[in-house]
Structure formats: C-alpha cells, structure tokens
UniProtKB/TrEMBL annotation:
The lineage of its organism: Eukaryota, Fungi, Dikarya, Ascomycota, Pezizomycotina. Keywords: FAD, Flavoprotein. Residues 22-154 form the Adaptive response protein AidB N-terminal domain. It comes from Acrodontium crateriforme. This is Acyl-CoA dehydrogenase. Belongs to the acyl-CoA dehydrogenase family. It comes from the Eukaryota. The keyword Flavoprotein applies. Residues 1-12 have a biased composition (Low complexity). Residues 515-629 form the Acyl-CoA dehydrogenase 11-like C-terminal domain. Transmembrane segments: none annotated. GO terms for molecular function: acyl-CoA dehydrogenase activity. Residues 1-20, 191-212 are annotated as: Disordered.
Length: 640
C-alpha cells in the first residue's frame, strides 16, 4: 500500500504558529527588577512589590486589552453642531472612545499621578510612582500624555500655593486649591486632567512668537457677563484670553496651563483656565451643576483634530480661544520661567514612556523568540545570530533604564521637603548635588531615551519578521502601533536639537560651572568606589569623555557648542549610564550585570572592544543568551 500523499494546507488546516505569550514584566523583565533593587530600599521594595506584581498582570488582562483595542480602532472625532446648526455642548463636541475613557479612569484610580503627591514613601515616592507607570505604558493607549500634564500642573500649582508671598488673591487661591485637589485625586469624575497649550503657528518650542493675548476684565465687564463657574463650582478667572493654539494635546482635559502676552508687552505670562463652564442663574440647581451635558467650552472653539502617525486615540486639536476666562499665575511677564516645573515633569514622563515602550517591545520580541522556529526547526531563542541582535538592544535598554530612573530618583530628592539622612542619599553626596544633576540630566535623558527607543522598537519589529510589521488584531503583540506611538517622544516636549540647546544653556549659564563640577564629582565618586574598582572593568574611558566635555566647554563659545549639541547629549548620557551600570553590577557582582557594563564601556574603550573581539564567539553567544533570557533561568517572584 502506497503511503498517503502529503496534504496541502488550507485556510483551516496545516501549520498554525503558536501564539506568543507576553509575560508579566514585573516577573519576567530582569532589567526592571534590577532597577527596583538598585534604587529602592528593602523596606519600600517589600511594601510595593505585591501591588506592582498585581498591576503587571492587570495591564495584560483581557479587560484592559479590550479597552486598548477599542481606543485604537475608534479614534476621537468632532461634532461641533447639531442637526439644526446649533452649537453642541462641550461634552458632545469632542467624542472619544469608550476604551479611551476607561483607560483614563483606570490610570486615575491606580494613582499614576496621585501616588506622587500622597508622599507615602518619602523621597522614594517618585520612584514608586514611575515604576508603576512604566508597566502601564505599553497598555495605556497614551493616556499617560494627559497624565504628564496633569502631574506637571499639580506640581506647578503646589509650588504657587506654597509661596505665600501675597501675590495670590483670595479668589485665585481658592481656584488653585480646588484645582490641586482634583489634579491629585484618584476618583474618576472628580479628578481633573490637564492640557499644556504652548504650540502656535509661529513656532513650536520657540514661544517668543506667541500671538495669544490676555486682557484683564474690569469689575463691570465681569458683572455684565454674568456669573460663570467651572466644573468644580469655582468662579472663572478675571482675564479674557484670545488666540489660536496650533497643537493642543489632551484636548479632552479638564483644565489647561498656557502662555499669553498681556497689554502691549511682548513678555509672556502664565495662565490657568478650566476648559468647561456653566452660567449660573436663578434656575441653576445642583442637578445642572453636576450634569456634564450642561457645560459648554470655556471660550474654546475646536477647529479640527490632528491626523497623526501615531497616538491615534489621543485627541489633539487646533483650538481657537475667544473670550476664554483664565487666572493669571505668578508674576505678569514671567511666564516662561513660571511654567518650567511643568516642562520638567513632562520631560520625565516622556523618558519613562520611552523606556516603557522599549521594555514592552522587548518583552514581545522575547515572547516570539520562545515559540517561533526557523530553518532547521530551532527556536529563534536558540539561534545565536538572532539573539546577538537582541542582546545589543537589551544592553542599550539597561543603560536607558539606569539613566531614566536615576533622573526620577533625583526628582524625588529635589522635591523632598523633609531632611534626608546622608545614609539614605544612595549614590549622592548632598541634595544640592541632586538639584544640579537633575537640571543637567532631565533634557539629556528625555532626548536620548526617545531616540534609542525608536531605533530599538524598530529592531523589535524586525525580530518578528513580517508579523512585526502588521497592525495585529492581537493588540498586546502590535509592535507597529507601539512604533507609531513612540515616534512622537522625540518631538513632544522639545526635539533633540531643542533639548541640546537647553543643555547648552544649563552649562553656559550662571550656574554652569557648578553644574558641570557637580556632574564630574558625582561620576568620579561613583567609579572610584572600592566595589566598582574590584570589578576590574577599566574605567579610563569615563575620565576621557569627561575631559572631552570640559574641553568642549572651555574652547568654544555658545554657537560652536550648540552646533555640537547632539554630541554633547550623547557624551553626557553615555557617561551617566556607564557610571550607573558599573555601580549596579558592583552591588552583587552579578555576571550578566557585569557583562552589560563591560559592553557599554566597550563602546568608548577600544582596548576593551578589541579584547572582546578576540574572545571565542561561542562564549560571547552564551553571554548574549543570558543577557536576553536571564529570567528564563530565574524563578518568577525571586527575591529582588
């Protein structure tokens, strides 16, 4: 009897690729777990680990993924008028998806912003907050964008309220106290998100050309206009604002901070305004006040929504402001300086979003390599050439994670109002040093992590072959979406060149010498420590790179330094990550951590690179495998 002929495949028969399973990153991502162990005290780790483990599983749950898919497939839209031409209410003009709204509410309830203001972990509070946000990034559909501006606005208002310099009148203080309570709330429906409306047609980050104008209303004008309140029941501000905002992310936010010029001045002032209002009269009762459909936009007229490469679920619009009622914040004419706390916070969010997106993408790449077989029937995770490429990106990821969460650590210390004992100043000599390093490293970290995340995620797409390029129905595996969304991170809150310019201004400003000296002292103190020296990695390249930065600053003037701004960003970020990676490796002499540090340093140290090239490729391949799949040899839930 002749053997049966092989059967052709069909739509329902033949080979089907087993679906990759993305694991809980709290358990599976060794880089994330080492970050927790490196920056947090044992007490704090023990307190937060159960919640992070739960959250890491929840962001991959069917419910959250359903919301994520819904938000992506139902982008926002505008419906400015009803069938008969009458203006629609604010709640009906801008239509967002059910998935987007549910993800917003989930982020609020989980305290993605609120944790930072509950201050349950002292100077480590910001670390706890952003470690949780990291797990959220890959499933959030970019609700972290309004979260960033919500956090920035909360910090700004907190500082305004704390000044007690008499510049806030009773009405302004009441409005700010109410806004702060809502910006830091965990209760959906009560909590507020915020917009940050800076960009106009005249320029993006260059706000000097701002055409928006604000005029203070007289008591007679306010009385004639009637009593208007915002959604928190507080009367609107006594300034009227007119202008056009070209790029307003988080158009569905409950409030916004923005810059405008006053009078005949070209100086910018900072304003805060609720985005919705209700006119009170004798017939207005509590039912009206609590009914969102009764509110109209506060002098805000959406013109159109932006059609973007990514962040499709996030409403971004062009807005005309016409009679928008607002409160002046701070000193008139000092808006650029006054708004800086918002920019600092949003840039930290940007950096955490970058490493969060790359971390999720690498998790997808690892999941695929565990189940996909190539020629010869071998799994991709068993093919050295494939794993080598993955290892290169993982090394970059480790460096970026160390850098990003060091900035988060610095942020927490700089914000701490209570004295911090020297033994609790892990990695630092003083709070003053932390403030200098934060000012230098915030723009550097924002810029560099965005660039490396984009290139790293592109590699992850390639590592999946054709399926990586697809807009996959399985949203948890949709690397194309993550790639599209991540590209904005190199643009939002300042492009690379804008951030290079900011860094140059830090180093050439009145405190520039102090900042550079603080950086050099910090690097030397870290790499000269006995535990680091015992690693025997050879750290002369760090000293050489520091010298290059000093020479650049001494030999050149502003324009020449700015011309080399990207090189400056790269040098500072490489030095910082190198110092942190060797310090992390030195704390437990973990073989993989030591190898990661060695490979990072080899990028600038030719002697180490030459020595690595002479090693048998088989030995290097084994180390590649450990760098990428270390968690496969570590039991989930192993002690941090």
């Amino acid at each position: 009897m002749s053997p049966a002929s092989p059967k052709a495949s069909s739509a329902s028969t033949g080979f089907f690729q087993p679906k990759p399973k993305v694991r809980n990153q709290f358990d599976e991502d060794v880089t994330y777990r080492r970050t927790i162990a490196f920056y947090l005290s044992e007490q704090t780790r023990n307190q937060i680990s159960p919640d992070l483990s739960r959250w890491g599983a929840h962001v991959l749950s069917p419910q959250v993924l359903t919301w994520l898919s819904n938000a992506e497939s139902h982008p926002p839209s505008l419906q400015l008028r009803d069938s008969f031409g009458s203006p629609a209410s604010a709640s009906k003009q801008l239509i967002t998806s059910e998935g987007w709204r549910n993800l917003q509410d989930l982020g609020l309830k989980e305290g993605i912003v609120a944790i930072g203001y509950e201050k349950q972990h002292g100077h480590q509070t910001r670390l706890v907050q952003f470690l949780k946000m990291f797990l959220w990034c890959g499933s959030s559909s970019t609700v972290t964008c309004p979260s960033a501006m919500q956090d920035g606005a909360a910090r700004l208002i907190y500082l305004m309220l704390e000044k007690r310099d008499g510049k806030l009148g009773p009405a302004e203080r009441k409005a700010l106290e109410s806004a702060y309570a809502r910006l830091t709330s965990r209760t959906p429906g009560h909590a507020w998100t915020s917009g940050q409306w800076m960009t106009e047609r005249t320029g993006g980050s260059d706000v000097r050309g701002t055409e928006t104008r604000a005029r203070k209303l007289s008591e007679v004008e306010i009385a004639d206009a009637g009593e208007w309140i915002s959604t928190d029941g507080i009367p609107l501000g006594d300034w009227s604002v007119d202008g056009f905002k070209w790029f307003s992310s988080a158009t569905d936010a409950d409030m916004a901070v923005f810059l405008a010029k006053t009078g005949d001045s070209d100086n910018l002032s900072l304003f805060f305004a609720p985005t919705r209002r209700l006119q009170q009269n004798k017939e207005t009762d509590s039912n009206h006040i609590n009914d969102a459909t009764q509110y109209e936009f506060n002098g805000i007229y959406p013109q159109r929504l932006k059609n973007k490469l990514g962040t499709k679920a996030l409403p971004t619009a062009e807005l005309e402001l016409k009679g928008m009622r607002a409160h002046l914040l701070g000193t008139e004419g000092q808006g650029t300086k006054e708004i800086s706390p918002v920019l600092n916070i949003t840039r930290v969010y940007n950096a955490v979003s970058s490493v969060g997106a790359l971390g999720r993408s690498l998790a997808i790449s690892r999941a695929f390599a565990r189940v996909r077989k190539a020629a010869g029937g071998r799994l991709l995770m068993d093919i050295p050439a494939h794993v080598r490429g993955m290892a290169n990106v993982h090394v970059q990821y480790r460096g970026d994670m160390a850098l990003t969460f060091f900035v988060v650590y610095l942020l927490g210390i700089s914000e701490s109002e209570a004295p911090i004992a020297q033994q609790d100043l892990h990695l630092l000599s003083s709070k003053e040093q932390a403030v200098h390093l934060l000012r230098l490293l915030t723009p550097v970290t924002k810029a560099m992590t965005a660039l490396t995340a984009i290139s790293g995620i592109r590699f992850c797409m390639e590592s999946l072959g054709g399926v990586g390029y697809l807009e996959n129905e399985d949203i948890e595996l949709n690397l194309a979406k993550i790639f599209r969304d991540t590209n904005v991170l190199a643009i939002w809150e300042g492009t690379t060149d804008v951030l290079a310019g900011d860094t140059v201004r830090v180093l050439t400003g009145s405190r520039g010498t102090d900042v550079l000296n603080a950086f050099g002292t910090w690097v030397h103190g870290l790499v000269a420590s006995k535990p680091v020296q015992t690693l025997g990695l050879g750290l002369s390249s760090l000293t050489a790179e520091m010298q290059q930065i000093r020479h650049m600053m001494q030999r050149n003037k502003g324009p020449a330094i700015l011309y080399n701004g990207r090189e400056l960003l790269e040098r500072i970020s490489w030095i910082t990550s190198a110092a942190l990676l060797v310090a992390d490796a030195a704390r437990d002499n973990n073989a993989v951590a030591v190898e990661v540090a060695r490979r990072w340093i080899a990028r600038k140290d030719q002697s180490i690179d030459d020595a690595m090239e002479k090693e048998p490729w088989e030995s290097r391949a084994k180390l590649d495998r450990k760098i990428v799949f270390e968690s496969d040899d570590t039991a989930p839930g192993a002690k941090l």
